[in-house]
Amino acid sequence: MAEVGLQAIDQVTIAMDFDHGASQDQVVRRLLPFISAQAPGRQHGEYEHVARWVLECLINVGSLDRGFRAVYGVFGADGNYWRRTFDFKLLIELVSPEGEVYLRTSDEAINVLVGALDTDVESAQIAAEVKLENLIKRGRLSDAQVAAEQARYRTVQYAEVLRRKLEATRRDVRAVDWLNEVPDLIAEALDHIATRYKAENAILATITQTRDEAEEPDRKRRAARLVELVRDCIRRHTQLQARLQTAGQTFRAEQDRQQFAGPPQRATVDLFGQLLVPVLRLPVASAGTPTAVFFRAATGTVQPTAPRLTSLVDMLLSPPRERDPLGEPVPEPELAPPADPDRFSGDLWDHADELLELIRDAAPVVGSAGRSTIYRPRPPAPGRLAVATCGQSRDRGRSAAGRSGHTGGG
Amino acid sequence: MSETIQTSDAGDAARLIALGLRPKQRPSRDLIYADLVRRYRQDPVFADLVEAVAAGLGLAVLAVTNQSGAVLAAMSESAFEVKVDEYARRVSLRDRNVEKVLHGLIHLAVAALCFPRPDDLADDTYVGRVSVEQVDQVVREACRMLDEAAAATEENADPLHEAPMLEQVWRVYARRPSAATTKDGRLASDTTRGMITKALRFLVDQGFLQPAGEEGGGTFRTTPRYQVQVRELAAEQAFDELLALGVVATSKPTGSLQRRGPEAADV
Questions:
Q1: Distance CA A165, CA A56 (A)
Q2: pLDDT attached to residue A296
């Protein structure tokens, strides 16, 4: 199970890019071969069941927060022993702009894959890159493949950090520091991409060469796999860069909208800074009152239901309505015969047949009639069938001669 | 106009309040309503009468305008009050307090997103736009910032196991998933997006928002009524509560949005 779990995290991580993640079905599908290899000879339904079960366990479906909680004890600054909780998630469900739920792996889960906790993404990435280059140079492809895979995890992780920050700044979030933090972040990210791009291209050149020069099929295959991996890394970086470039525009547009407004007209509360953020900082126990007060005041009024005795009596005495579990009978639709779809007269058909007959013997001349047979809505008469299919297949896999005939005829 | 109050005046005052209790009625669509609004604005005696009748019912008259009609708010313990217990009815008893806080917080976040700057709240012509996605992401972003701030202090800020109620609200929100699938493929209602959707739909029913599209999980426009409600009552009262708790930060008139210098603006 643990192996399947790691596989699942791995599949989700690989499917993750800047915008999306993997859908549950997709991950289940990709897990199936692995599970069937682990326990061969079972039924297909059982494999799928296992895959779903593992996935749901990783999300922790059933708990309210859909995450995990570990309790640990630690000595505090005052020397007392405190039991604290640590919350984490492995797979996170998110909604795409199209409204579908997809999965992404959390930082904790990626760290499990990389085998390191709390590594600085940026420096770890550079280290992985150097390692990869070195390994390829020395010709140790199997090690290089592991290193390249790890580099890709780091790339994904880095993109994830950036995505979160970028999304936060692209929105109208007023707590973002526009003077230093955001421009610095973008500059840093673009720098990062530029260096990564260079490095990855260099590596790509080396391994492509290795691949082409390799003699043994196994070595060749490994090199080919590496080429694919590094290409994927480059693709991810290009995608990230495109995002970064448009981000600046969004910032400026949003800023213009907010900055070029007149001074406040009357004294009001700053809802975000003075209400929302302080409330978020409060402990749950004391946040109850302010949120309840706001809720009562901001939700308006309801009309209390006041039943009249007479209508109440009527309501209570009326017999329950019989409900058919199947609902209303579906009325039999009256279908009108469709209008005659034959838009070509018999003469035209004969003429077309004649022309096609000609084509079969000598190639070039095709009139527009040759094409029109395709659109004929009614199945053609048996005699014409051969001609019609002949015309169709001609049209689909048009030969050079046929095309020149078409332009000539039309 | 009239110095002495007639019985019919009391009837008119009550009618204005009754119309105000129907959030989707507008003076622009109803001649009698428009007439009553005009009378309220021109006749101080009538206005006093309306307010007295409303106060007797446990209601406060926040504003009476041609745009939004009579905007009323329920006072505490009023029969017209929306109870958070009823609003969040399908919640297990164990987590009731936490859920109530989250629902209140989400309403606060919706208002904060509808009127991002103090100026937007003050400007009568301002129409805010808000979407489910926006609300969720902005609150999560605020949570992330608080998380970073907590991490920067380098103290062990993990919540205590024995005292879950002392956990900070942002941790609860950040931990709650934003979306999750249910068995029948719909979005689960106890996720943050589910709760935000519920809040926005509820506000639509109250005549505070109008649907304006499907993008971002559902986009909505504010009505003048909502602005009045938030400005005149909700924000003030919640602010007072926070003031009593001593946790309010002072804010610049431009809001907590930071400005860039003029030389940086034309980059």
A1: 28
A2: 84
What average pLDDT does chain A have?
71
ipTM exceeds 0.90, yes or no: no
Give residue B66's domain range: 7-74
Nearest CA in chain A to B86: A302
- Are both B159 and B233 inside the same structural domain? yes
Same domain flag for B118 and B40: no
In terms of DSSP H, where are the helices of chain B?
Answer: 7-20, 31-42, 44-56, 84-87, 96-114, 118-122, 132-152, 169-175, 192-205, 224-229, 235-245, 262-265
DSSP lists the bridge partners of residue A91 as: A105
Q: Same structural domain for residues B236 and B180?
A: yes
Longest dimension (CA), chain A: 103
**Residue B176 belongs to a domain:** yes
pLDDT band at residue A410 using 50, 70 and 90 as cut-offs: very low
User: Inter-chain contact A280–B259, Cβ cutoff 8 Å?
Assistant: no
Structural domain count, chain B: 2
* B108 and B39 assigned to the same domain: no
Does residue B267 belong to any structural domain of this protein? no
**Contact (CB, 8 A) for B236 and B142:** no
Residue B259 lies in a domain: no
Q: Which two tokens stand for residue B204?
A: 């639509």
CB contact under 8 A, B237 and A82: no
Residues B188 and B220 in one domain: yes
On whether both B38 and B165 belong to a single domain, the answer is: no
Q: How far apart are CA A234 and CA A202, in angstroms?
A: 11
Higher local confidence (pLDDT), A263 or A245? A245
CB count within 10 Å of CB B30 equals 15
State the amino acid at position B30 in one-letter form: D
- Please indicate whether, in this complex, the C-beta atoms of A290 and B59 are within 8 angstroms of each other: no
d(CA B170, CA B139): 9
CA–CA separation, A216 vs A227, rounded Å?
17
Specify whether B61 is located in the same domain as B137.
no
B53 plus B137 within the same structural domain:
no
Strand-pair partners of A71: A85
- Whether the per-residue pLDDT at A386 is higher than 50: the answer is no
Backbone angles phi, psi at A279, to 5 degrees: -65, -40
Look-up of token digits 């019985």 = B7
Contact call for A255 and B161, based on CB within 8 A: no
The candidate with the shortest Cα–Cα distance to A13, out of A156, A211, A201, A196, is A156
Nearest CA in chain B to A177: B258
Sign of the C-alpha dihedral, residues B179, B182, B186, B192?
negative
Cβ-based burial of A25 (10 A; exposed 0-12, middle 13-18, buried ≥19) = exposed
Burial category of B259 from C-beta neighbours within 10 Å (exposed 0-12, middle 13-18, buried 19 and up): middle
**What digits encode the pLDDT tens for the residues B198-219?**
899 999 988 889 898 887 778 8
Task: Give pLDDT tens digits for A312-357.
Answer: 888 888 887 776 666 677 777 777 776 666 777 888 888 888 888 8
Tell me the CB-side half-sphere exposure of residue B1, using CA atoms within 13 A.
10
| Domain-terminating residue out of B26, B55, B74 | B74
Q: What is the pLDDT of residues B88-131, one digit of tens each?
A: 766 555 677 788 888 889 999 999 888 877 777 888 888 888 88
Of B50, B74, B98, the last residue of a domain is: B74
Closest C-alpha among A198, A203, A219 to residue A136:
A203
How distant is the Cα of A404 from the closest Cα of chain B, in angstroms?
48
Residue from B257, B258, B259 to probe the interface with A (highest A Cβ count within 10 Å):
B257
